[in-house]
Write a structure and sequence with these properties.
The structure is a homodimer of 351-residue chains.
Chain A lengths: L1 H7 L5 E2 L8 E7 L2 E14 L4 E5 L5 E2 L6 H4 L1 H5 L2 H4 L4 H7 L7 H14 L16 H10 L11 H13 L13 H14 L8 E3 L5 E3 L1 E2 H13 L3 H12 L1 H4 L5 H9 L4 E5 L3 E6 L4 E7 L4 H14 L5 H6 L1 H4 L2 E3 L5 E7 L9
Antiparallel strand pairs in A: 2-3, 2-13, 3-4, 3-11, 5-8, 6-7, 9-10, 10-11, 12-13
């Protein structure tokens, strides 16, 4: 358990992955040459944990970051908190979201906070500028500083607060590792991943809650099981995400566009530093990937290619999705100068 | 010459580098673990082209992108164009800049365009939002759309237009490969790099001018020679960049902070997709690096580490530069959750 040494000595860090094994998944082309490359690891895993196909060091751990939100949202429904506040499918989708803080998100989030009767600073996440450039400009024009509700994770935080209040727990400190809110989330993640998370590195996420590392195969397995779990809570979350693709991301976001195109045939979720995961319920599969260098532009192209490889994206849809699946790059004068696409040495017929 | 095949077939792309050889230069730590890594190649080269030290596949080519601006600016001075319009050191610094479009930049750029008596659309670069967030917000508040002068390369474009006008050349099309403006720039780059650029891949840069690939060692050599060249034009450019560090980048920019700290002991210039180069005149050395995945966050940390390794940055200055040389990462709640720093396997005592 090499992690124990690291955890005992906070001055030491260690690599979670033998990154020397990881292949180039994505090329960044500036015509006529490849200018940059993105290596990574990816795997396709069944509900029983069988690794169907893998590229790179997939047994090594990753921080799942925001990929794990759909599973972190389970206690919100399973505790009865969601029904107690009459949570709508929109709110359930926002509990799983990395949202862009557009008006469509903020309207729901503001009313949710009012329902809870808590002040804004009950949220443990900090403020940040909306991911959506138009929403960010709207704030500037209105002379309004971003609030904690503008944090892309604010829906998750409202769900966690809702659960704590419903169960009579002290809401203060709900973001800390030992609070029951985090403990319940970890337990559900551990169960669906069928992985003991006890000795894994624990980082602090951008929104201030713990992010517990897990093997990439475990993340994929958790998604495989989340996609096929017969429980009422998982079904309601899957349905809410599929019904409200704009709420899980935003107008111009990758997960939103994929979900709009594929509906309930996938559950897809991005995370910071280029983790990305998806469930394909009809196949009983989960996929997860991590780009070594943390570039989201590559994670998007890679997970789209994997969905195409698994024929979850048909050829007509694939053609329509090219602007996000293999985006051309335009310079400031509007000229197409390059493209981001899967490496021909990886998935030669799928990317 | 493997490039010839690529250039003959525009549907084909090829890797410029055998990236499998390139080591991890920079780690991105989310405590307590390394979450992401950045590989790359770097070299330290003398004025005669001797490679003093190298990491990774440094003979392979890179698009130099904006790194090359100080050298591209030479014909502006050498043609007499700069003196003909009475160019100030501020304008010379802007000719070499990737500026953040703050007021301090725009004021100079607007008056320069007026001196030329050309309309805004004489600039071949397109508009983009200022790199500086405060400058971008100011534009939104004022209800002004970014113009071509806000493009981070607009100073270079004004210098190129100034040169064409001074020499009686048609300014229209100055951004095209065969225009005398681009030809002169290529010749000076080729001379200082002592490298034949004829058969190298030619990409189109973000600002719409050609970017001609060259071996990374050639880029480093060009900087070594630029830093020590006894000519009047090189001396004036070096002095202008050192005297106006804010003008070559911007208030919050890496190159600006390094130049403020080191003055005329270095000439440092960033380029898109994580190329970075520097000259150290006192040592007669040039350094150049390219992060494989194009991440600027890693290029900055890596080139700072190389300057420290070469003792161009002393220990007191190194301590003061830590916020840019090995930046801590804070989450939205203001908590220090990680750090970007050189890999302990690369430059163990310098990064």
């Amino acid at each position: 358990m090499p992690w124990m040494a690291v955890l005992r000595n906070p001055d030491k860090t260690a690599h979670m992955s033998n990154i020397l094994e990881n292949p180039v998944l994505v090329d960044v082309i500036r015509h006529p040459a490849v200018e940059s490359v993105h290596r990574g690891r990816a795997c396709i895993v069944t509900v029983t944990g069988e690794v169907i196909e893998a590229w790179g060091d997939v047994e090594a751990a990753v921080y799942p970051r925001s990929c794990i939100k759909p599973i972190q949202a389970l206690p919100f429904l399973e505790s009865g908190a969601a029904d107690a506040i009459g949570a709508s499918p929109e709110q359930i989708a926002l509990a799983c979201a990395s949202h862009s803080a557009e008006a469509v998100h903020l309207n729901e989030l503001v009313s949710w906070l009012e329902i809870l009767g808590l002040p804004m600073d009950a949220l443990a996440c900090g403020p940040h500028v909306p991911n959506d450039p138009a929403a960010a400009a709207d704030l500037v024009r209105a002379g309004i500083k971003p609030t904690r509700l503008h944090n892309n994770c604010s829906g998750k935080h409202l769900a966690m607060l809702s659960t704590a209040l419903h169960l009579g727990e002290e809401p203060g400190g709900y973001e800390t590792f030992d609070h029951p809110v985090q403990k319940r989330a970890r337990e559900r993640i551990s169960e669906l991943a069928d992985t003991d998370l006890t000795n894994q590195p624990v980082g602090t996420d951008g929104c201030n809650i713990p992010t517990v590392a897990m093997p990439l195969t475990s993340l994929a397995r958790a998604f495989a099981r989340f996609g096929t779990d017969p429980g009422d809570a998982t079904a309601r979350i899957r349905a809410a995400m599929a019904a409200h693709p704009v709420l899980i991301g935003g107008t111009e976001r990758f997960d939103t566009k994929i979900t709009k195109a594929l509906g309930n045939t996938v559950v897809i979720k991005t995370g910071a530093e280029a983790v990305h995961a998806a469930a394909i319920p009809s196949l009983g599969l989960g996929i997860a990937l991590k780009i070594d260098d943390g570039a989201g532009r590559a994670a998007e192209v890679a997970i789209a290619a994997l969905l195409h490889y698994l024929k979850v994206i048909d050829e007509t849809t694939w053609a329509a999705l090219q602007p996000v699946a293999a985006p051309s790059m335009y310079n400031t004068a509007g000229k197409a100068v390059g493209q981001i696409k899967t490496s021909p040495n990886w998935l030669p017929n799928a990317g």
